[in-house]
Amino acid sequence: xxxxxxxxxTSHGVPVIACKCKVCSSQDAHDRxxxxxxxxxxxxxxxxTRVLIDVGPDFREQALRxxxxxxxxxxxxxxxxxxxxxxxxxxxxxxxKLPHSPTKADDAAKNAPPEGIHIFANAATxxxxxxxxxxxxxxxxxxxxxxxxxxxPSETVTKKNPLEIGGMQIISVPLKHGKVDCSGYLFSARxxxxxxxxVAYLTDCNFIEEKSIELxxxxxxxxxxxxxxGLREKPHSTHFNFEQALEVAExxxxxxxxxxxxxxxxxxxxxxxxxxxxxxxxxxxxxxxKSGGSVAPAYDGLxxxxx
Length: 307
What we know:
Helix content: 10-25%
Largest sheet: 7 strands, mixed
Number of helices: 8
Strand content: 25-35%
């Protein structure tokens, strides 16, 4: 299983429009942060399964950069524009690039969803999709095209009823993003040693209930990576800052902890140095780092392998 960070930036993206700060003016590719999104791939018996987390306004650019050739499933964290408003650009995948297109006369196609791409999201997010992209669900004129999708409830993707696709097991993790209900996701697969290994993707959020922490701990097996909302150093009303993100990591103890959804307040290098300075405040994470783990900012294009 490979987890690719397609975007590690906040809602403005980095560089921010009309900003001339040193981060927005940086020539370091690590400081270019598209809106937060990730791609999860897994290969079983020669077949590659691709799952997209969020489809923000930068999706077209992200898909081209990642050379995305097919898409099996989409998971949405919530319905804010920076995580949703690239939805129309999945048209190519929902019509002609489905791995098992309903138009193909083969055995695999017989089991393909005729609705197009399945999208899992919580109730509030499904409502956002129907409001913001109402034309998808209406009878409209011929021409122009629109995505062919089926909205499904992420609330049903539980530890008792995990979503299983392409050798991966997926569980939805409830999060709070201010007053907004948000969905994190825990991905698990069997490593080469046969052990269950997992990646937790936890954005956008400023609060995670203990039962969600327990859900991760009880179902992760070996938690290889955790990608956590870490907006900036200063506190924020609806996002974790770096210290709050590390408090969560201290509880779930991934081997590798990554900040995502970052602003332009600090460069990639400055963020690395800051995290190194405060790591001593988190003794469990510090021990993990000493034994070969890491705590660092994510960046666009980062590939995380679970072997």
